């Protein structure tokens, strides 16, 4: 991926102790939270069982790469959403779709997309001053992909097939959308591959199928 992979994705940091509040859905729709050194939006969304996009929307001015001990965050209250869902009209259940991995694991998916894929490494030339981390500050690893979040939302788990490259598992790869890049727009993904920049560049451009997992 090009050197400007991370450009345009960062937001301003906040002074220590600054609280962030979003207009409340109810009188108690947000809870203050004081961050710890190890916190990231991704970890908090899993620990608190809150959708990643909802957590980020509640803290629009926080730089995901600068969550530090003492930073005041807002934890959105999902009660209103749960109540709305409880009274929503029933929606017909779509037939279960599944794909089987080369290891024999059956994965349920909601949609399959034809995507143009590239690959990137952990090299400084590709990641610039931000270093070898994803958009949320987590270390890059096999299974990290960069996406256009308007097409594949952050936090989406996917199963990728159809590529031909020795640096990736044969047959298919289960990955999570936790990164983005300036060149990744529309039906594009960038797959992180461990290894040197020259090795990873041999991936080139490939057409793959991306299964959006449930």
TrEMBL record:
Pfam families: 3D, LysM. The keyword Signal applies. It comes from Cohnella endophytica. Keywords: Signal. Residues 31-75 form the LysM domain. This is LysM peptidoglycan-binding domain-containing protein. Residues 1-29 form the signal peptide. The keyword Signal applies. GO terms for molecular function: hydrolase activity, hydrolyzing O-glycosyl compounds. SUPFAM superfamilies: Barwin-like endoglucanases, LysM domain. One of its GO terms (cellular component) is outer membrane. GO terms for biological process: peptidoglycan turnover.
